[in-house]
Amino acid sequence: VVVDYVKGYLDDAAAVVASGGEHDAGEDPVADLIRPMLEDAGGSDAGVAALCAQFSQMLSELEEQADAQKRPTLAKLAAPVNMAVQLAQINKATRASQLGTTDMAHVKGRQVASQVDVVKLRKAEARIAAKMEKRGSKSRYEASKLINENPLDDNDLLMKVNPILDYTSTRDKIKDVKLDSFDISFSGKRILTNSSVHLVYGRRYGLIGRNGIGKSTLLRNIAHRELAVPTYISILFVEQEMVGDDTQALHSVLKADLFREQLLRDEAAVNEELRRLDVPEPLDDRGEVMSKAEVDAKKAEMGDRLNSIMTKLQDIEADKAESKAGEILSGLGFNASDFSR
């Protein structure tokens, strides 16, 4: 499997060079792809290093071929060029384009005014160029950011993937996932064509296939919402490995519920604001003493907000969260004595 994968990568690189294209300079396939695969296959350090050196040499030769194809070469003109005539034609075309139309020479020599809107044509060309650039870019979804960036402090990444975390507002929506007729490419090679996925709510699924067939790529595309999963369905992509810390097992399960954690933080912030308003002569944001009317209005605002938060906490049964987390840990084989470890 490793040999087939590496051979396919080198063949793709050679095809890119042969077509006059450029290989991705920001990617190091030897360090990012080939070396980890060889190490996972059980290769010795010395053997892996020797093979990687050979692959690096092969890629260097391909890059040299690409550079050689880019070098300008001299060509003999088929006939003399009248620069004065060409300059006059260029100036005429420039003036016509500024007026919004272009003159095209008819086969019999007469001039025909084009009906092409130059402004619209340029916009269309820009859209096509952007689409081609997007199509050529590779998907690099770094799922480890979901863990390493501590989403409880900064939910920006998760909110991009899951714009709706308030699952109390999505209870009556259809939770099945049905994706039809999609393609997925990786490293310039199409790995899935005209594919479909149908996931029924409440069932558990396993993804099975040989190494290198594209299982992880499919999951990353789903996790990054490059496939059209409904936005009201939250997606969590779990890394195979993560760095251990002092977080207790029970709290690790609890903090995965980002909506509950956000509500608890909001509740604490509102209570802190109410305590600040209860002191004699509280200050506003500008550092000035608030009047009694301002204090009463602010307390009323905070009270309404606190009631809304408490209603949502009741809707999600936040008071039962620890018992539910304990059930999850028990199902994973944890003893009750391990919950606080």
From TrEMBL:
This is ATP-binding cassette, regulator of translational elongation. It comes from the Eukaryota. Keywords: ATP-binding, Nucleotide-binding. The gene is GCN20_2.
